[in-house]
């Protein structure tokens, strides 16, 4: 879940957040701060897709459709096709440019553009990628040779299809770091909508039409004032994480430095006797 055990100088272990998670959060916070400073249970199930900002939910940005199953992880039913359709038909036409789109790393958000082959890819796939990227390669070459070329010419960062599409319309995309859904204000909006729906005493025989009516009513009751509160809450969290990560980074470095110093102190006296 993003944590690991780290040995200290006294041989005890402390539970610390994985550096990769801290790094990803730091990158996200730095980018979102830069942008801000630059001023720029029924048997029926519904899946809701929406976008919002300090001004409230995006006008005409609401996609509400029936889940195909009422049990299991129905979140998986939101797929790339549905998400891209919503983005092209509802999000982009109603999004005032330039906007900052904060997006998590759900599978349907993360279809790669120009996906880089791996060592396990077939030879034709490797060749196709190399030729598509204007790298000379031959069918006579072995896979290890092809993969070396791929490693040399692959882009430094992954590019995602949906990010490039949104950027092409004059917007900025910022990806949430893993395990950090609390940095997304819309999670607070979802929580309020669910509370309102539950308050209508939903039961198993509620019709889909009625469930839709209740859900749309709940959406309408999430006000602009609510959204400002959600956004302010996240801004406080961003500052908290930014300050805390800096303190933890320094503390861990001190632990590691102390451990190194203790090692030197123990080893040095016996060196003359070797």
Topology, number of strands: 8
Q: Looking at this structure, what is the CATH superfamily?
A: Ribonuclease H-like superfamily/Ribonuclease H
Helix content: 40-55%
Total helix count? 8
Distance between the termini: 45 Å
Total domains: 1
CATH architecture label name: 2-Layer Sandwich
- The side-by-side strand order for the widest beta sheet comes to 1-2
Q: What would you report as the Rg, rounded to the nearest angstrom?
A: 25 Å
CATH topology: Nucleotidyltransferase, domain 5
Organism: Euphydryas editha (Edith's checkerspot)
Protein name: Tc1-like transposase DDE domain-containing protein
InterPro entries: RNaseH_sf
GO molecular function, one term: nucleic acid binding
